[in-house]
Amino acid sequence: MSAVTMAEPTVGQAPTPVRRRRTGMRWLLPAWGWLVILWLCSPIIVMIVFGFNDTKSKFNIRWQGFTLRWYRQLFAISDLTKALENSITIAVITTLIATALGTLLGMSLGRYRFRGSGSINLVLFANVAASEIVLGASLLSLFITLGVARGYWTIVIAHVMFSVAYVAITVRARVVGLDRSLEDAARDLGAGALIAFWRVTLPLIAPGVMAGALLAFALSIDDFIITNFNSGNTVTFPLWVWGASRVGVPPQVNVMGTLIFMFGVLLAVVGATANRRKRV
Fold first, then answer.
1. Which of 63, 173, 33 shows the shortest CA–CA distance to 111?
2. What residues contact 63, with CB distance under 8 A and at least 6 apart?
3. Which residues touch 269 (CB under 8 Å, ≥6 apart)?
C-alpha cells in the first residue's frame, strides 16, 4: 500500500498529496535518544554496581558477589578519607568565594555598560573556553614566580579563579532578563538600596546564583588537571584515585563516587522542585 494518499480536492483546487506518518519513526528517535542516555550513564551505573561487589582482589573489575561491606567500611582507608575531606572542603570554600565574586561581577556586567565591560566579557569567555592544561600551567608559573608554596590554599585559589567565570556568566544571563521596574518600585515605596536588593533583586536572580554555585561546586570537587599542577603535597580525591589506579582501586572509591553523585542529584532535584513551586 502506498504511503501517499490524495486529499479530497475542493472546488477550483487540484488534489494535494497527504503523507501518512509511519509509526516506526514515532519510536525511532525516542529509542535512539534513550540509547544515547544509557551510553552516557553507563560509567556511572558501573561505578554504582561495583560499589556492592564482594571483591577479593586489589582490582575491582570482576563481579564476585553482592555485599554491603564497603559501605560499612567507607572510611577504613585513612589516606582516601583525608583526600575526600580535602576535596569537599576545597569545593565548599571555592563555591562560597566564587559565588560571591561571580554574582557581583555578573550583576555589574548584566546591569551596567561601562568602559572595559566588553574586555571583561571576553576574558570570562576565554577562561571558559581555554584548555585546563593552559590554565593549570599558567597558575603554576604564577605561583612559582611569586614564590608561593603550593598546597591546599593554592588549590583553592586556582579553583576560585576558573570557577568565577562560570558563576558570572550564569548570573549575568539572569540579570539581563530582570525587570528593573520591580526594583525601582521598591525604591519608590521607601526601601533603601540594600533592602531593595535583599527583598527584590536577590530572590529574582536566586535561580541563576544557585545554578552558578552548583556548577562551581561540581567543577571544583572533580577537577584533576589544574589541581595536579598546583597541589604540592596536598592530595584530593581525584588525585588519590589516579595514583591508586596503578596498584588497584579499592571499592570504597566506588562508594564515595556513588555518594557524591547521589548528593548532586539530590541538589538538582531540590533546585528544580523549588523553581517549579515559585512558578506556580
1. 173
2. 49, 50, 53
3. none
